[in-house]
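INPUT
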Amino acid sequence: MKNSLDPRTGMPVVAMVGGGQLSRMTHQAAIALGQTLRVLATDPAESAALVTADVQLGDHRELADLRRLADGATVVTFDHEHVPTEHLQALVDAGHRVAPGPAALVHAQDKLVLRRALAEAGEPQPAWAQADTADDVTAFAARHGWPVVLKTPRGGYDGRGVFVVADAGEAAALLDQHGTLLVEQRVVMVRELAAQVARSPFGQVAVWPVVETVQRDGVCNEVLAPAPGLDDELATAAQELAVRIADRLGVVGMLAVELFQTAEGIVVNELAMRPHNSGHWTIEGARNSQFEQHLRAVLDYPLGSTAMTAPVVVMANVLGGDTAAEDWAGPGLDERVHHLMAHWPDVKLHWYGKGQRRGRKLGHVTALGEDLTEVRARAVAAARYLSDGVVDDAFAFPDEHSGGAGHE
Amino acid sequence: MKNSLDPRTGMPVVAMVGGGQLSRMTHQAAIALGQTLRVLATDPAESAALVTADVQLGDHRELADLRRLADGATVVTFDHEHVPTEHLQALVDAGHRVAPGPAALVHAQDKLVLRRALAEAGEPQPAWAQADTADDVTAFAARHGWPVVLKTPRGGYDGRGVFVVADAGEAAALLDQHGTLLVEQRVVMVRELAAQVARSPFGQVAVWPVVETVQRDGVCNEVLAPAPGLDDELATAAQELAVRIADRLGVVGMLAVELFQTAEGIVVNELAMRPHNSGHWTIEGARNSQFEQHLRAVLDYPLGSTAMTAPVVVMANVLGGDTAAEDWAGPGLDERVHHLMAHWPDVKLHWYGKGQRRGRKLGHVTALGEDLTEVRARAVAAARYLSDGVVDDAFAFPDEHSGGAGHE
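OUTPUT
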């Protein structure tokens, strides 16, 4: 197994496929640990490429680009799941360390593979079937009722590739368009949860408190840590489930298990094997962030403490607002950041350096405190203001530009 | 005044003179804020140059290099005090924002200028005089006693340029070598303290708790936050002193006021106008680090909360050990990091990527907790182990390489 260190520093070189905000935030952690983060980006203006020293431009679907990335690196890891499995296997065959390995990662890449593995393991999940034809969907719906949920096995994220379907005609159209699909029972859920665990090749695991993820239009909007009002037994069950899955699948690095909480308990929605939006709160909210822990895990370092730094932590995503950039008439980004800092001196900002686009994850904010209602209001108001310059009713915003009134 | 934003992100470009660990850690903060940190480094292997995307190689004593650095930047700032004042004035005259400005910075560059300014302001400091001849030193010693402390007005740091002198002969030799010197009374001190404050052009200030700095051979070794057993009145006096100095000198950015605590109170030793070793603990130990606060201040953003995240925080520097790199037979750096993480899962590591050299600041560790004795023992043991692979008596270190005993 190749195990190169950076000759300039004597410390590891972590090669990360993907130049998004997950690589960007991983780089912050790598700097503290003295490591070199090498990023494979498709564009020099990508979020991580803007701030890292060792950027390789290339395509994660091209084996030659992946080989170039891996050359001289201690380990290869990912900020997304889109690298073809056979390319990862080729890197492993060439003696490179790949974490997570292709046999594990496929469960985060292919939802049908995941459903089969969880079924074999006897883990809780929604009723499901593979659907090759509309008749398969109709037969499934006869047992579980309409509407059903159809999912493309590969390539979906943030609600893309997920379709709620009310009849066989709609199903047929989707099957025509996408080929084989996963059909799932539409789960009547109480809310969504996520359990994050890091696992090293040595087999050490570290788990954070279970969080509630609040979605809007299929996109994560808020994360509440720990999940409010979750009973201890269910929280422990969710953590143990995450650890069992990490262990069974041989995950190396971060694993996020996205869960539906139902009246009966929890079922697995899907997996991510990388730092994940549900864990951004850990940067300030836990003694070790998911980003540092991912680096430790893929390098087979001992894992760090996951203790929380405050009783309540809320992360809110800043999503691109409804107004197109060219029609924007409100305060500019830099001005909005000024206002944000003036109003919320204890809200922590993470800005990804990406261009504005509706619904795009542009950044996030984190608030810490004692009282969920107060902390959540603070985080959500700050994120919303940063997103579109709109002031929540919840707080009064002084008009700094109204000076002069009364000075006739 | 030029006030450029990065056209790729719409966010500020902060140009920092110097490629050391202070720039490196400032970059971590800049990433979170969506800013571009542009670094002027003298060598591509410098600590910050290894991890930042926008590196300019050049000499901080060359005006042309400084002009190139400032071009298109929102503001120019520093990770050291060695830029000639007239070059900074030339940048200001060309319309660039320079923070701190040359009129403030000179007080951190020239100890004689500082002493005069503090005398005018009536602030507490050791007895001092300008010494051009050995007779000046003798006359000073007649009033304040031998030994005296002689200091080069410019260029000293980490104990360099500071001489304890017992008689006129030694003084004459130093004056021959260095020219005009500052002579100071040798203060009988209880300990050293530091008060850090950030100040923005708008005039907002934010101050952290006063810390104790533990020096060894003139180099900062440990920082204890807050300073143990410091009475509230003296702590407040130190904070108010720092704020008064920042305000009077027009500091923009971080100011560290290094203090001697004596039986009578506090006196000012010297100033740093940049992030400073005495504030590294704030990365994990305060809601906003000195690095983020420096960026906020130099950009005239509102300042962030300086609340501590734990009752006790201890930072310990990792200094290059006594053994020359070529004679080193102990565990390699990467192996020592493994052991460190195994033993102290809740100690936070910051490694600067610099080559090993005796006494050099290679990194630091931070520990948080409730009990000073425990937290300090943890931080110091971790730093010492990382420095030279030597295990403190204070804890038992299991021998991971002795496996097999009893398995005959």
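end of record. Chain A touches chain B through 51 residues (CB under 8 Å).
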